[in-house]
Amino acid sequence: MDYVVEMVGIRKEFPGIVANDDITIRLKKGEIHALLGENGAGKSTLMSILFGMYQPDRGVIKVHGKEVRITNPNVANKLGIGMVHQHFKLVEPFTVTENIILGSETRKFYFGLDVKSAAKRVEELSKQYGLNVDPYAKIEDISVGMQQRVEILKMLYRDAEVLIFDEPTAVLTPQEIEDLQGIMRNLVNEGKSIILITHKLKEIKAVANRCTVIRRGKTIGTVEVADTSREAMAEMMVGRSVSFKVDKQEGRPGNAVLEIQSLTVKNSKKVDAVKSFSLNLHAGEIVGIAGVDGNGQSELVEAITGLLPIESGTVSLNGKALNGLSVRQRNESGISHIPEDRQKRGLVLDYTIEENLILEVYNRPPYSKNGLLKPEAIRKHAEHIIQSFDVRSGTGGRSIVRSMSGGNQQKAIIGREVERDPDLLIAVQPTRGLDVGSIEYIHRRLIEQRDKGKAVLLISLELDEVLNLSDRIAVINNGELVGIVNTSETNERELGLMMAGYQKEEAPHE
Ligand SMILES: Nc1ncnc2c1ncn2[C@@H]1O[C@H](COP(=O)(O)OP(=O)(O)OP(=O)(O)O)[C@@H](O)[C@H]1O
């Protein structure tokens, strides 16, 4: 059999944890091979080994049947292995071409040579693989989806034969996801081979040929995707059956907790991003905000939480206006916030889990007294959250958050915010990057909050998630409220049209 890459019996240990125990994965030429595993199962570690960022403690890597030692990413590049990281590594004020040649032809680049011929090659590659990228566009002016294509081009420019995609759709809109899937098909049709790390079983079904499932650092098996159901893959991954439907009773909404009246908010470029937006959210209900990314959702949340000023209108919590209050005052009056960007806004990456879990409460008992922190109480608090939210890491509460897997970072934030027992919980993309087992659990916890009489504002780009969890759905388009619908009386199609700006009753017929 013609394998492009084989990783056999790979082991990698970190202090306190065996991240890869005994993993074997074999990549055929011209296939899309999904790598599926729970949060913290060891996927990123395995791919970092293949990309030369870590050395395995044990195991063999072969490229085209020949054993290799990949001591750093340059060696990986030379062997034809490239990686599209989750967080892009692009220089914003530079053009597409400049970014692509940066590093590989730095000398020529500095002397102003050959940028033109590089741009020509970029254009050819872009055409060949259907990427549609303008070689002269500046990175800061192009969409996230386009930036990802630049990362792909970077690999193609270096003649990568094996392309590793690390959760590539986490940051993309549904349309961009479809486009990316087309691009991946083009890539394999042209002879490339792809390893795709993803938690989305739908995507695996849509594009992958085979799927290797790992659990707690061990290979569980490799399956043909066409012959395997989503449920079967999920079960292999978590070791029990997973429900994709959310069980919930009819909500029993009480008094208004959050009242937003004619709210207008400017974004960082001083343009109106939220326009005269009004919405009431009651105790005991989940209201989902549906909208295409970038239609004012972030600014709406930032105005409620105090991260952006309110231009006009009012926001009140339990009948008390929040306008003018600081972020801390708002937190203390009963708002919890699971932020969109966990690394920038949710965590201090170089602090331990214990420290991150008291970021909002460190200044009060039992976590501190007379200005002194109380380590025992802090530890107990962390242990409780780690246990109930299944936050996995090497050394428990003492682990530095930067070393934790992305999904476990997210679970830590959700645990922290839910445990504060707020009146209003604002959850922005709460399950981004989580495995299906954790998603099921987090969804249950959000519904539990609602059933305890809390108000939950859910902002998610996953329409399935909005439909599964919300009692009512408010659709936002271009910063304006298009309409509010009861979830039981709507469907994906209607929401899609409203997200495009049609009022409920004006929606065109099929
Ligand atoms: N540099 C490191 N130092 C210490 N522990 C680490 C390091 N990198 C990873 N780990 C630990 O190894 C385990 C595997 O992490 P890894 O990031 O490979 O998981 P993953 O399957 O990619 O998870 P996710 O789906 O959440 O991204 C985790 O428990 C993580 O905390």
From TrEMBL:
Keyword ATP-binding listed: yes
Name by which UniProt lists this protein: Heme ABC transporter ATP-binding protein
Topology of the protein relative to the lipid bilayer: Peripheral membrane protein
Main subcellular location: membrane
InterPro entries recorded: AAA+_ATPase (IPR003593), ABC_carbohydrate_import_ATPase (IPR050107), ABC_transporter-like_ATP-bd (IPR003439), ABC_transporter-like_CS (IPR017871), P-loop_NTPase (IPR027417)
Ranges where the ABC transporter domain occurs: 5-241, 258-503
Cellular location(s): Cell membrane
Keyword Translocase on entry: yes
Regions annotated as coiled coil: none
GO CC terms, sorted: plasma membrane
Pfam families xref list: ABC_tran (PF00005)
Family: Belongs to the ABC transporter superfamily.
Cited SUPFAM superfamilies: P-loop containing nucleoside triphosphate hydrolases
PANTHER family: CARBOHYDRATE TRANSPORT ATP-BINDING PROTEIN MG119-RELATED (PTHR43790), GUANOSINE IMPORT ATP-BINDING PROTEIN NUPO (PTHR43790:SF4)
Keywords recorded for this protein, A-Z: ATP-binding, Cell membrane, Membrane, Nucleotide-binding, Repeat, Translocase, Transport
